[in-house]
Design brief:
This protein is an alpha/beta fold. It has 14 helices and 14 strands. Strands 3-2-1-4-7-8-9-10 form an eight-stranded mixed β-sheet, with helices on both faces. Helix 11 packs across helix 12. Bound molecules: nicotinamide-adenine-dinucleotide.
């Protein structure tokens, strides 16, 4: 059993930082959650959970009752500092914007003491631990990091919508700048994780995370490319994919309206940027997936033209089903394009999760509409559509329902 540590989680009001802080406190560590979002820190300090996730409120309330989880705007002297701040894309250059990491480092560097461990959980390009974090710590403290201050990367694989389960059960990759850092970081994660922990070095760990998300992006792009080709030929792409997947070594994904979120739409560029002279496939896959919202908007516009409908109900704003996260959501892009291309159309655009609706009735919303388009199939929407299909069709002016 690892000795309980004092741990600062920087970015603790976020999707990754909050579950992590709660799980570490539940495992018995003394945790300080730190965030620059003062409103959320205030709520979290007052026992209000700010993240809607399966099982999150219950676990947060349980841990909040102990004195092991506190929140603050500023870090304190600790044994371990875990950084889980955003690493967005610099849209023009396609480089990782590491400014949040840099400012998180600025707040903890004055507190670092010999033997401390700094863990980067944020997704980062290869060599960030060595070339940025290690060098800054060496430059701005009296410590040579080899052995004095430990640095590791523990990339996160958890899936919003099922964060707590995945935090606890997924296999993890942990890579330190030194073997001591790898060992201590694996002990910290091993204190709450039931998944297998695979040990490596920092550069490999950084690369693994990007390789995983790029794999997802490229495979989605292939499914989307098939949709573009087979729609062009008037061949049903879903039938093609379903039958192709009976091949024992083929598993084609489903096409969609595009790729969004904070990871898959962004991380492939970090990998590409690390070797743009040799990487050919990544930008192509990104181009295909980025085109899908426009393709979807055109499909909808063509359909609208055919039935001359004017009142359209569009449902689903998040980047994927069953989450309230709208970051990089292709659904927003689809609606923006429709509105730009045909300002005459009256669109009601809603999402029970992202709009935080206390009660939601698809039947009520569909009343007198000419068309219902479901861009994101949250479970609640699928369920209501299935249950009330006949009634929904009856209350609509023209019963046109398209589900993507
Ligand atoms: N969300 C996911 O599904 C997911 C999955 C795997 C990896 N990641 C990676 O984890 C990292 C965090 O992502 P997220 O989705 O939790 O982001 P998020 O925006 O939900 O949370 C980040 C938090 O960091 C805070 N923050 C920013 N700068 C800060 C600073 N200097 N000091 C203290 N707090 C600061 C923000 O206020 C915010 O609350 C990113 O690198 C992301 O790519 C995210």
């Amino acid at each position: 059993m690892i000795k309980k540590k004092k741990i600062c989680v920087i970015g603790s009001a976020g999707y990754i930082g909050l579950p992590l802080a709660v799980l570490l406190a539940q495992a018995g560590h003394d945790v300080l959650g730190v965030d620059i979002n003062n409103e959320k820190i205030q709520k979290l300090s007052n026992g209000i959970c700010t993240l809607e996730e399966k099982g999150m409120d219950e676990l947060y309330q349980k841990v909040y009752q102990t004195s092991r989880l506190r929140f603050s705007s500023n870090p304190e002297l600790s044994d371990v500092y875990i950084i889980a701040v955003p690493t967005p894309l610099e849209k023009k250059t396609k480089a990782a914007d590491l400014s949040f990491i840099e400012s998180a480092l600025s707040t903890i560097i004055p507190l670092l003491r010999e033997g401390n461990l700094v863990i980067l959980e944020s997704t980062i390009p290869p060599l960030t631990c060595r070339n940025i974090v290690k060098k800054r710590i060496e430059r701005e403290t009296k410590y040579n990091t080899l052995g004095k201050i430990l640095i590791a990367h523990c990339p996160e694989r958890a899936f919003p919508g099922n964060l707590l389960f995945e935090f606890t059960n997924n296999d993890r990759i942990i890579g330190g700048v030194t073997k001591d850092a790898t060992k201590l970081a694996s002990e910290i994660y091993g204190s709450f994780s039931k998944g297998k922990i695979h040990l490596t070095d920092d550069v490999t760990a950084e690369s693994v995370k990007l390789a995983e998300n790029t794999y997802r992006d490229i495979n989605i792009a292939y499914a989307n490319e098939l949709k573009l080709i087979f729609d062009n030929l008037n061949i049903n792409v879903k039938d093609v994919i379903k039958l192709a997947n009976f091949h024992p070594r083929v598993n084609i994904l489903n096409p969609g309206i595009g790729v969004g979120g904070h990871c898959i739409a962004i991380d492939p560029w970090f990998l590409w940027k690390s070797s743009p002279n040799v990487s050919k496939m990544i930008p192509t896959a990104r181009k295909v997936n980025n085109f899908m919202p426009e393709f979807t908007a055109n499909q909808i516009l063509n359909h609208i033209k055919k039935i001359s409908s004017k009142n359209i109900l569009i449902v689903g704003k998040s980047y994927k089903p069953d989450v309230n996260d709208k970051r990089e959501s292709p659904a927003l892009e689809v609606v923006k394009i429709i509105e730009e291309k045909n300002p005459e159309i009256r669109i009601k655009f809603i999402d029970p999760l992202t709009d935080n609706l206390k009660s939601f009735s698809l039947l009520e919303e569909a009343k007198d509409m000419d068309m219902l388009i479901i861009l994101v199939s949250h479970s609640v929407i699928k369920h209501q559509l299935q249950k009330n299909y006949e009634s929904i069709v009856k209350v609509m002016r023209m019963p046109e329902i398209i589900q993507f």
